[in-house]
Amino acid sequence: MTTRYPERPDASAGSLPTPPAFRADRLTPAVADRLVAACPSTALSRRAGVLVYDVGACTACGRCRQEVPEAVVDSGVFELAALTRGHLVKEIVLRGGGSGTDRGPRERG
Description:
- 14% of the residues lie in helices and 21% in strands.
- By secondary structure, the protein is α+β, with helices and mostly antiparallel strands.
- The protein has a single domain, classed as Alpha-Beta Plaits (2-Layer Sandwich), CATH 3.30.70.3270.
- The strands form two sheets. Strands 2-3-5-6 form a four-stranded antiparallel β-sheet, covered by helices on one side.
């Protein structure tokens, strides 16, 4: 049983890759299609006017960030925890992608 995790932050964690964060103001359907095509882990998919991001499937490889650096940044979040699998799936409304509104990330599930 772990009772004091973490006892203190591990300095080496700062050099590890973290999952991406997406800038909703830069996400159009065309950009989302490029991101989906670049993702080798299938953590990204697109449905109508929404980019679906499965944080649990993401390997933090950085290919999405390389493909569209103006729309993707490092999240800086190394450790992820969720009570249900659905809390790891984010839906990001695309700019000009159907609903006409930018509501940013929201949890599904």
